[in-house]
Amino acid sequence: MASCVANELLHKIKQLSILLPINVCLRRRCSTSSKQRDSQRHLTTKSSSEKLVGVVGLEIHAQISSNSKLFSGSPVCFSAPPNSQVSFFDASLPGTLPVLNRRCVEAAVMTGLALNCTINKKSLFDRKHYFYADLPAGYQITQQRRPVAVDGVLTYSFLGGKKRSQVVRKHVQIKQIQLEQDSGKSLHDDVHSQTLIDLNRAGVGLMELVMEPDMSCGEEAAAAVRELQLILQALGTCQGNMSEGQLRVDANVSVHRPGEPLGVRTEVKNINSIRYLARAIDYEIQRQIGVMQRGGTVHNETRAYDSKSGETIPMRDKEGLQDYRFMPEPNLPPLIVFEDNATLPPGVDSSQVVVVQKIKEGLPELPSVKREHLVQAYGILPEHSFTLVNEEGLMEYFEEVMKATRKEPRKVIGWVMNELLGQLKQQDMSVSQSPISPAALAELLELQETGRVSSSGAKQVFQVMWGSSGKTAEQVIQEQDLGLVSDATQLHNICQKVVDSHPTEVHAIRNGNAKVLNKLMGLVQRELRGKADPVLVMEILKQKTRGGGC
Ligand code: ADP
Ligand code: MG
C-alpha cells in the first residue's frame, strides 16, 4: 500500500515535471555551528598596539562530476526540466534505501590524493538533521565523525612583489574532505507567497573541503580557490564553475593581533565568483577592523555578499548553537577503501571496490607540474607559466601558436602576454573570445620572422586584425601598406639623401661617434613611416658614412 502511494506520488512528480509548490513559510537553513575552538590557537599575548590582521578559513562544496547521484541511480543533468531527475530515494519515500555510488567515492579519494591528504581506509556516514523544504528526508547524509580524507595541504601561488610579477608561493592546510548529499533547490515566489521546490539536485554528490584558517586576505583566498579549481578540473572530479554553483565557497573571516588568539569569525556566503570572493573577504576584514577600533565587538553571524554594493550584509545570527542531532546513518555500512590489490580480502573483485593505489596511478598532471613543464619545455619565466596555466585557455592558445611558428618561445610568450592578454583584459574578454585565433597570430609572427613586416609594424597589424576579425595578417599588411621595405635601390636612394643633407652627423660618425648612426637611421625610418628594413638600412648607412665612402 505504502509503495503504491509512493509510486503514485513519484509518478505525478515526473509526469508534471513542474515545481512543487509548498505553501508554508519556511525557516532559513542554518549551516555550521558557532563552536569557538579558536581561542586555543596562538596563546601568546602581545601588545595591543600591534595592527589587527585578517584571518580566513574556507569551507568549499564541490559538486562531483558523476553521471548519477551519490546514493541513487538518478541521472545528474542540470538543464533538465524541474523534478524530472528524481528517484524514490531522492524524494525520501518511505522504504527506500541508499546505494553508494562508487564513482563519487573514487572522485573524493582522487581529490584527497591530489591534495596530499591521508585517505581513511574506513570512513562513516552520519545523518545531519535540519528542517527545510528542499531536504525531504529532514536530514542530510554526510560524514561528520570520520570523513573520507583528512590532513592535506594545498599549495597555491599568486603574482606578488612590487611589479606583481614575482610568483609568491603559499600553503593552506586541508582539514578534511567529506562526502555528502546536495539538497534540492527552493525558489521563492513572492507574488503567490509560495516556495517552489525542484528536487533534481537533491542527492547529487558533493565533496566538502574544509580548510584551516591559514590565509590572511582576499587575494590569498582567491588564489587558493583558483588553484583548487584548476586541480579539480584537471582531475575531472568537479567542473568547478562557481557561477553555476558547482563550486560553492563560504568564507570564514576574523581579525586579531598577530600572536593573540583568533577573533570571533563571521561566515560570508553567496559568493559566486573568485573576484567577488576576494572583494567580500577584504571588505569583511576592513569592516571588522572598523568595529574593533570603535571599541565594538564582532558577532558570530552569517553574512551575505552583495556584489552590487560590494558590501557584506547580515543574514542570520549564529550565536545560538544549532542542534543538528547528528546520528550514525543506519542504512549505510562503514565505507571501506583498500590500499592496493594485495590488501583485498579473498574473493573480492577489485573492480567492485575502491583501491587507492589504482587511483594514485591514474592521477593526471596537476597544474603545478604543468607549470614546471612549460618552464622546462619552452625556457619561459615561472611567472609566465603561472599566467599561462591560470588564465583559462591561454596555455592551449600559446601551445597552438608555438606549433605553427618558428619564432622563439620567449618572443611568442611576449606577444601572448602583452598584446593578446593586454587586449583581452582591457575589454574584459576570455581567451576563447579572442578575435585573433592562434593560427592567425602564428601567421603574423611568421611574417615578422621572415622580414615581411617590422616588429612595430606587426603590432600595428595586430591591432587592425583585432578590430576586423577574420582578416589575415597578409591582407592587413597589403591593405594598410605596412610591409617592410627591403628594396635595396630604394633604401640606397633614401640613405644617400639623408647622408647628403646631414654633413655634421656624417663627420661625427667618421670621427668615431657611432651612436649618431641611430639618428640617421631614425631619419630614414621617418621617410618610410617606420617600414624600412632596419638591418639593411644600418648596413647601407655604415657603408655610406665610412671615411671617403660616399
Ligand atoms: P565549526 O565547528 O563551526 O564547523 P570549524 O572548526 O570546523 O568550525 O571551522 C569551520 C571553518 O571556519 C574552517 O574552514 C576554519 O578554517 C574556519 N575558521 C575557524 N575559526 C576561524 C577564525 N577564527 N577565523 C577565520 N576562520 C575560522
Ligand atoms: Mg565544521
Write up this protein:
α7 packs across α8. By secondary structure, the chain is an alpha+beta fold. It is elongated, with a radius of gyration of 32 Å. The longest helix is centred in the middle third of the chain and has 20 residues. Bound molecules: adenosine-5'-diphosphate and magnesium ion. The site of magnesium ion has 2 residues, from loops. Allows the formation of correctly charged Gln-tRNA(Gln) through the transamidation of misacylated Glu-tRNA(Gln) in the mitochondria. The reaction takes place in the presence of glutamine and ATP through an activated gamma-phospho-Glu-tRNA(Gln). Keywords: ATP-binding, Ligase, Mitochondrion, Nucleotide-binding, Protein biosynthesis. It catalyses: L-aspartyl-tRNA(Asn) + L-glutamine + ATP + H2O = L-asparaginyl-tRNA(Asn) + L-glutamate + ADP + phosphate + 2 H(+); L-glutamyl-tRNA(Gln) + L-glutamine + ATP + H2O = L-glutaminyl-tRNA(Gln) + L-glutamate + ADP + phosphate + H(+).
Query: How far apart are the termini?
Result: 111 Å
Low-confidence stretches: 1-7, 9-47
Structural class: alpha+beta
Percent of residues in helical segments?
A: 25-40%
Largest sheet: 9 strands, mixed
Q: Average pLDDT, to the nearest integer?
A: 89
Subcellular location: Mitochondrion
GO biological process, one term: mitochondrial translation
Protein name: Glutamyl-tRNA(Gln) amidotransferase subunit B, mitochondrial
Keywords: ATP-binding, Ligase, Mitochondrion, Nucleotide-binding, Protein biosynthesis
